[in-house]
């Protein structure tokens, strides 16, 4: 479903993403790992068509994102970093707007709203203004927006950021279940989530892919390492060293 | 899920328009607009003394000056707010062309001005009651005034695409609108022409021709010329094209 080839992004002289290639098929959940500033969000912004890559190609379900962005975007659901929302709307009206822009109207719209309110446990705040939501609820509202059209491809930038332990668990289960018939990429700093939800993980460091494989195979990369944490620390360079 | 350009534009328009009503800014602006148009007209315009109940020199005369400030005040949130909230990232990853969003939002702001202007209708009723005004200049006056407001809005839309700060957008837009107004102000143009060598007169006249004022006055006097309407339409188109460029550069 997602085919990315030789993706590169420069900001001025700085290379944020350098020659990244990967494929995610239906039924796969790919975890994006990497230190702060590694280029995870930048890669996701290119895959969703927000940033234009400096070079490289992106295909979503066979449709080229650069040549036919409107069609390619139809099958993507996206949760940006920091979960942006229109602060002057209620949860339900925000979700209604997202549905309408995607061409879901009338009865189908109310059905879609109810479905995602259920999935993200938002019924209680249905008519509350987005402005007054707590951080976790804001995050879940934006997450709900990303699945309102039941997309084939889901790109989630730190979907469990700011959630309480119960909600983290629920969201991981949700990602895992949806992963059965969708292609999903999500980024995270919580390495247990990789075991809990991913079929594959990719570690990015300073714009480059430094490891790619199943969670089990990643563990074998570093001799003697027992946890993903140790693997992560030994193959990515920390900011402390120059 | 079919993607219909008109339906998408309408969805954007609807959200933007409703968000104006959720914000106190709109009510403040409309009240100031009404007070300013009435105030200028009755006090400075000597509306009641002038024996011919003409709206041109009294009522519409003041509109450009009011729009210089209030136009940017209405438009400054158009794109800056999307940048500030980060919702631009949601919008630009949805299956729509940026044009649908640009046009949808612009129409929402334009409708706000249409309502503001419609509320000044009491002036017209007063005039009709006091005298027997010619409906021609009244209609062209309203059209000219509305086009002027849309011109200011288009300038503001363009500025807001480049900044996440509403304050920066407001200041830049007011400055641009003042510039576009003053370069065509008859007194200023004449004095510039007098100080410059005569060989430059045509250049100055041409620059002043590009100003809002030049085209506004002709129309507000009741001379309805397609050329002036086309002028404002092209200002709007240019403003929206620059908006598009600004949004693009932010996503580069
Ligand atoms: N709009 C931009 N202009 C200039 N540089 C940028 C821009 N966006 C990102 N960068 C740079 O690109 C690099 C990668 O940033 P990115 O946000 O992709 O990191 P990340 O892996 O998501 O980090 P985090 O884990 O902190 O979210 C960083 O060095 C960042 O400063
Ligand atoms: Mg990030």
UniProtKB/TrEMBL annotation, chain A:
Q: What InterPro entries does the database record attribute to this sequence?
A: AAA+_ATPase, ABC_transporter-like_ATP-bd, P-loop_NTPase
Keyword flag DNA-binding: no
Q: Which residues form the ABC transporter domain?
A: 2-231
Q: Which UniProt keywords apply?
A: ATP-binding, Nucleotide-binding, Transport
Q: Name one GO molecular function term.
A: ATP binding
Matching Pfam families, A to Z? ABC_tran (PF00005)
State if Transit peptide is listed as a keyword.
Answer: no
Similarity-based family: Belongs to the ABC transporter superfamily.
What name is this protein filed under? ABC transporter domain-containing protein
Q: Which organism is it from?
A: Brevifollis gellanilyticus
TrEMBL record, chain B:
Q: Under what name is this protein listed?
A: ABC transporter permease
Molecular functions per Gene Ontology: ABC-type transporter activity
Q: Which residues cross the membrane?
A: 25-48, 60-80, 101-127, 139-160, 167-189, 229-247
- Spell out the InterPro entries in the cross-references: ABC-2_transporter_component
- Output a single Gene Ontology CC term carried by this record: plasma membrane
Its keywords, alphabetically, are:
Cell membrane, Membrane, Transmembrane, Transmembrane helix
Q: What is the protein's species of origin?
A: Brevifollis gellanilyticus
Q: Establish whether keyword Transmembrane helix is in the entry.
A: yes
- Where does it localize? Cell membrane
Write down the membrane topology: Multi-pass membrane protein
**Principal subcellular localisation of the protein:** membrane
Spell out the PANTHER family in the cross-references: MEMBRANE COMPONENT OF ABC TRANSPORTER YHHJ-RELATED (PTHR30294), MULTIDRUG ABC TRANSPORTER PERMEASE YBHS-RELATED (PTHR30294:SF29)
